Structures are given as C-alpha cells and as structure tokens.
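1st attempt posting a full record on here, be nice pls
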Amino acid sequence: MRTAKLRASLLSLPLLCTPAGAMELSSLEWPPYSGAELPEQGTLSHLLHQALATQNEPLLIHFQPWSRAIRSATTEPEIVGYFPRYFANDNLCLYSDSIGTSRVGLAVRSDISVRWDKLEDLAQYRIGVVRGYRNAPEFDALVAEGTLKVKEAASDELNLLKLVYGRLDAAVIDEQVMHYWMAHDPQLRQSADKLAFAPQLLAEPTMHVCFTPGEAGEQARLQLNQGLQQVAQPQASGNGNVGR
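the predicted structure (as tokens):
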C-alpha cells in the first residue's frame, strides 16, 4: 500500500524536463507540420530543431490549441514566439526567415464543380474554415466584409468530414494538411474518392516563426535565422494552413 501511495505521489509531481537555456516556442497540432506525437514533432518542428542545433541551442515546443499558442507567446515571458504564421506586413511579429511554403486552397466534393474567376464567385458555396486561422488575405477580407459567408469549425479534420457528409461544398485548407488527414483518419481514408484538392490555389504564403517584439524576441529571431542559413530547408510545400 505504501508503495502504491508513493508511486501515486511521484506521478502527481510536475515533470521538470525543460532543457537548460532552451528556446521556448508554442505551436499547435497541425500535421504534418507540427504536433507533439508526430515523428520529430512534425516537419517544421524538425527544421527548427535542426537549425537551433547548429547554434548549440536546445528547443522546447509547447503544443497547444492555436488561440492559446498565440496568447502564450505574448503573456508567458519564457515563450519567445510561436509558429507557423503566414507572413504579413504588420507590427505584431518579428518574423523569422521562411521555414516553408503553404499551398492554401480548397478541399472540394468530387461530385460538385467549384469554380471561380474571382473570389466573389465563391459566395454561392458553403465554405468551411478553421476558427482562428488566417487563410488568404483577399479571401479573409471578403469574409470580414460579409461578401463571403463561411462556416467555422474547430479543425481541418472536422471540415473534411463535413465535406464527406455533404454539410459543406468546400473547405479552405493547406494541401499537405489535407493529404495527411486523408491518409490517417479512418473515415476519410475510406472516403478518399469523395474529396479532391482544387487545382486553383487561394494563396501560397511563406511560413515563419512569429517572435514577440522586444529584445528577447529579436535575439531569438537572429539566432534562429543564423541556424536556418546553415541547414538545407526541406520543400515544406511538398514535404510537409496559420496561422496561421
């Protein structure tokens, strides 16, 4: 009995596993790019680990829901940034060098022809987006002004399932994220013939680490950029949507 109680007490203690002096970033579960249970924590995470290893700097990634990942980088002093974020001309981030490219387009039902010459043409369709994600600037602007009506969901996976069940006509998604879920979700794998990735892209933005403005963020950004220059970057657009 004492052994069981001792074991329970030990299990209840916090795990002190942060590497000394590690750079701390936050991210989300967004396979194949990032995720706590993915091989090497995802393709983007692996690149960041490699880049910082050239600087003898360990990396600790906190995987959280997207809105919390963003908030953590601005409210928790030990977390100096988050990723991935699409580049934008704003003062909200100190952007790292590019860590990849995202092919942002539409997942569509195979039995429905979704075509457009201009984005306003998409107003006739039921389009799903993920809550809190950036998509394409022009698309997001049309949503904000009410020209395009979208349906929000908690995840890309859920939007794809809604497509399968006919609750959407299209869903905004990164191409590699779609491929991942079609291969790994049992329901989607069985419905592979029902969905397709539309060849016409909405955008092809670069992805970055968003460092928190300030001295600590700037030092971390410079250190990461030095590391990125020393490693060969994989073709993230073909190797594995944000901030996204």
